[in-house]
Amino acid sequence: MSYANVEMRIIQWAEARRIIPNSNPDVHLLKAVSEMGELADATIKNDKEAIVDSVGDVMVCLVNYCALQDINLVDCMEVAYDQIKNRRGTLLPNGVFKKDCN
Questions:
Q1: From CA 87, how far away is CA 66, in angstroms rounded?
Q2: For residue 97, what is the DSSP state?
Q3: What CA–CA distances, in Å, run from 89 to 73, 79, 80?
Q4: Average model confidence (pLDDT) across the chain
Q5: 3-state secondary structure 72-83
Q6: DSSP structure string for 4-28
Q7: Residue 73 burial by CB count (10 A; 0-12/13-18/19+): exposed, middle or buried?
Q8: Residue 5: CA atoms inside 13 Å, Cβ hemisphere, count?
Q9: Rounded Cα gap, residues 79 and 63, in angstroms
Q10: 43 close to 51: Cβ distance less than 8 angstroms
């Protein structure tokens, strides 16, 4: 199933439960941050099942956030990719991305 297809199913689910019409973007942004905390906790514990669940929860929050902002999450990913696709460099072991100067 494609990202766009899953995104639409999440939006339909949220609309059916009146999450979309009765909420606002701030609520879903804060919920996404909360879910990121759960993802960090699952990562520290190396709990793969909780990691998968937390990533999904973060994505659901972002889909709802985007729907309330009248933007499309897949379009956001495409914009981000267009900005990074030509970057050259490498990630160093210390976590710093070193850009190529060429």
A1: 26
A2: E
A3: 27, 20, 17
A4: 93
A5: CHHHHHHHHHHH
A6: HHHHHHHHHHHHHTTTTTT--HHHH
A7: buried
A8: 2
A9: 16
A10: yes
From the centroid of its chain, how far is CA 79?
14
Average pLDDT over residues 14-26: 94
What is the rounded CA–CA span in Å between residue 70 and residue 45?
A: 36
Alpha carbons 54 and 34: distance in angstroms, whole number? 10
Q: Other C-beta atoms within 10 Å of 66: how many?
A: 20
Q: Which two tokens stand for residue 62?
A: 């972002």
C-alpha to C-alpha distance for 77 and 63, rounded to whole angstroms: 12
pLDDT in tens, 30-77: 999 999 999 999 999 999 999 999 999 999 999 999 999 999 898 999
